[in-house]
Design brief:
alpha/beta, Rossmann fold, 10 helices, globular
């Protein structure tokens, strides 16, 4: 083979390799109006905490997926996200919403796998030390069990939607740690710090595993900074009586001004 032929062959091979490896991000290179969009995940993706929730999964058009749909008018939009979803239930019940033609997939997942809600409720009722111990148990579960569950989830999503852009969004840091008072039945500052430490670790693990799977990681902590529970301008519900499911979820402002900008930025 001549030197010229060898160079040409290498160029063709490298070009094909570039095209193949870029395939999952193909959706990002076209207009959102051409995309088929599917939202998966747990209550932070179904829109719990915002107005307009309905059905057993408590889906709302005012969660971040519905807001993104309204702002971008994709070719199609479907939400399979469901309150209470874990990695196991997502894989068992939500993947049927995907297809080889899906262009964009978004999700939040992992919080229920480590008992996010029960941990917070426990911390409401127990001492500062007991709260810290409960959070430490959840953090240990993160290290022992959750990475493999996340890996399997992202792998199954990619198998069902091989060319889609997958955006994995994180969870906000829930509490303002500076306010001296957090209202009736509110958390002490030590409890708030313990819970926030758990959220930081949860985000770290999800970010690591999503990036390893080739997904786009969208951190929301900057967007929610200054808007934690107990703060002057919260974008998250504290302990809520009616409906109780809103407890410790984003408000309408949290989805509109926290999650939606984070997703929009991740897709640029």
């Amino acid at each position: 083979m001549s030197r010229r032929t060898t160079v040409l062959a290498c160029f063709v091979f490298s070009t094909l390799l570039t095209l193949l490896t870029a395939a999952p991000a193909a959706a990002a290179s076209s207009s959102p109006s051409d995309w088929d969009y599917v939202a998966l995940g747990d209550s932070y993706s179904s829109g719990v905490g915002s107005s307009g929730q309905s059905g057993l999964c408590l889906r709302s058009p005012n969660g971040y997926p519905g807001l993104w749909d309204a702002a971008n008018d994709p070719k199609s939009y479907r939400s399979a996200a469901c309150s209470g979803a874990t990695t196991d239930t997502l894989r068992a019940t939500q993947l049927s919403a995907l297809s080889s033609g899906t262009d964009l997939v978004t999700l939040t997942i992992g919080g229920n796998d480590v008992g996010f809600a029960p941990t917070i409720i426990t911390c409401t009722l127990v001492s500062d030390a007991a709260c810290a111990a409960t959070v430490d148990i959840a953090i240990k579960a993160l290290s022992d069990d959750i990475p493999a569950k996340l890996d399997a989830t992202y792998r199954d999503i990619r198998r069902k939607a091989p060319t889609a852009r997958i955006v994995v969004l994180g969870y906000p840091i829930l509490f303002d740690e500076t306010a001296p008072s957090c209202g009736f039945a509110g958390m002490s500052i030590p409890k708030r710090k313990s819970i926030n430490k758990g959220a930081v670790e949860l985000n770290r693990v999800i970010a690591e595993r999503s990036r390893a799977a080739g997904a786009t990681w969208a951190d929301v902590t900057d967007e929610f900074a200054g808007h934690g529970i107990c703060g002057a301008s919260p974008w998250l519900h504290g302990l809520t009586v009616l409906p109780p499911t809103d407890s410790f979820h984003p408000t309408g402002n949290g989805y509109r001004y926290g999650y939606l900008p984070a997703l929009t930025s991740a897709l640029r």
